[in-house]
Design a protein that fits this description.
globular, alpha/beta, Dihydrodipicolinate Reductase, domain 2, Rossmann fold, 335 residues
Length: 335
C-alpha cells in the first residue's frame, strides 16, 4: 500500500506532537522539515531522517512531500496554507485556521481550486470523554445551554518570545488556548451562532492581547452559551471543561484537557460508570495521532476526513465577532 509522506513546517512546541503522530501512523513517514531555526530542526529530527529546509517554499517544492503539517505561529497559517495548495500539497493546519474569517475562507477556496485536501487539527474531538457523550447525544434531547471553561496558566516568559500574545501572529487567550473550546461548543451545539457579546482584559501579563475573556453566545435556535478562558490561573493549568445541559442529562467533561467525564446526572448515568480517565502527558491530549492517521486513511481512500477545512471557519468567525464586541462594547450580529 502507498506510503503518505509528510513534511512539517514550524518546529515549535506543537511540532513534536505532529512528529509523534506521523511516526505512529500506519502507511506514513516523515520526509522533510522546515523552520527558520536550524537548531529547532535539529532537535526535532534528532532521531529521524528528513530533509531540512530553512525556507518553507523549498519544502513545498519537494516532490517527496505529499502532506504538509503547518505548526507555525497562527499569523502565518493563511500564507503558508495557500502556498501549499498552489504547490499541490495536502495540508493539516494547526488551530486556529487563520486570524481572520477572510483568510480562513481564502484558504478554503485555495484548496477547492487546487483539488487538494485541508484538514484542521482540533484533536480534542477525538478525546474519549468527548466521543462518549457524542455517542449518546441523539438520546439526550435538545442541548439547551453549553458552557466552556479554560482555566490555564502561562507565565510571562511564554509571552516574551516575540509572537505569543501579539495581534499579528497569535491573538490572545481566546484565539490561542480558547479556539479548541470554541470549536467544541459549535461541534456539540450544531446550531449556528447568531449573536456574540464579550469582555476581555489583560490582567497579569505584558502583551498586546487579552489574557482573560468571557464570551456570551446566542444561537439561531434560541438557546445560549458561554465561554470563559484565561491564562492567569496561578500556579498551573486547572482545567479545560465543557458542561452540557441536555433535556435528559447534565454532563461535565473536564480534567486538565477534557480527558474525563466529571459528572453525568440524569438519563444514561451508566456511561459515567463505564468511562475512565484518559491518561495524558500534557494539555494537548492524545488526539494528534488520530488526526494524522485519519488524514492518511482519507488519502488512501479508506475513510472520510473527520475535520475538513470548512469546519475551521466557524470558530474563526465566532472569535472575530467576540473581538469586535470587546472593542466596540456592543452585541455583534453574525448573520
Amino acid at each position: 500500500m502507498k506510503t503518505i509522506r509528510f513534511g512539517i513546517i514550524g518546529c515549535g512546541r506543537i511540532s513534536s506532537k505532529h512528529l509523534d503522530g506521523i511516526i505512529h501512523a500506519e502507511h506514513a513517514e516523515l520526509t522533510a522539515v522546515s523552520d527558520v531555526s536550524q537548531e529547532r530542526m535539529d532537535v526535532l529530527t534528532k532521531n529521524h531522517k528528513a530533509s531540512l529546509y530553512s525556507d518553507y517554499h523549498e519544502l513545498l517544492n519537494d516532490p517527496s512531500v505529499d502532506v504538509v503539517t503547518i505548526c507555525t505561529p497562527s499569523g502565518l497559517h493563511a500564507e503558508i496554507a495557500i502556498q501549499a495548495a498552489k504547490a499541490g500539497k495536502h495540508v493539516l493546519l494547526e488551530k486556529p485556521m487563520a486570524l481572520s474569517s477572510i483568510d480562513a475562507k481564502n484558504i478554503r477556496e485555495a484548496f477547492i481550486e487546487s483539488k487538494t485536501t485541508v484538514g484542521i487539527v482540533f484533536q480534542n474531538r477525538y478525546n474519549q470523554a468527548v466521543t462518549s457523550v457524542k455517542a449518546y447525544e441523539e438520546k439526550l434531547g435538545e442541548l439547551n445551554y453549553i458552557n466552556a471553561q479554560v482555566y490555564w496558566y502561562r507565565d510571562q516568559r511564554y509571552y516574551d518570545d516575540a509572537w505569543h500574545g501579539t495581534q499579528a501572529m497569535d491573538g490572545g487567550v481566546l484565539t490561542n488556548q480558547g479556539s479548541h473550546y470554541v470549536d467544541l461548543v459549535l461541534y456539540f451545539k450544531k446550531s449556528k451562532v447568531e449573536k456574540v457579546s464579550a469582555f476581555g482584559a489583560t490582567l497579569k501579563h505584558k502583551m498586546e492581547c487579552e489574557d482573560t475573556v468571557t464570551v456570551n453566545l446566542a444561537f439561531e435556535d434560541g438557546t445560549i452559551g458561554n465561554i470563559q478562558a484565561n491564562t492567569i490561573t496561578y500556579p498551573s493549568n486547572l482545567e479545560g471543561a465543557l458542561t452540557l445541559f441536555y433535556d435528559r442529562a447534565t454532563i461535565k467533561i473536564g480534567g486538565p484537557a477534557l480527558n474525563k467525564i466529571q459528572y453525568w446526572i440524569g438519563d444514561f448515568e451508566e456511561v459515567l460508570q463505564q468511562s475512565h480517565v484518559e491518561q495524558i502527558e500534557n494539555v494537548y491530549g492524545n488526539g494528534h495521532r488520530k488526526v494524522i492517521q485519519n488524514m492518511v486513511n482519507h488519502l488512501l481512500g479508506a475513510e472520510e476526513l473527520f475535520i475538513p477545512g470548512s469546519e475551521g471557519i466557524g470558530p474563526v468567525e465566532v472569535i472575530e465577532g467576540a473581538y469586535r464586541s470587546i472593542k466596540s462594547g456592543s452585541v455583534i450580529n453574525l448573520k
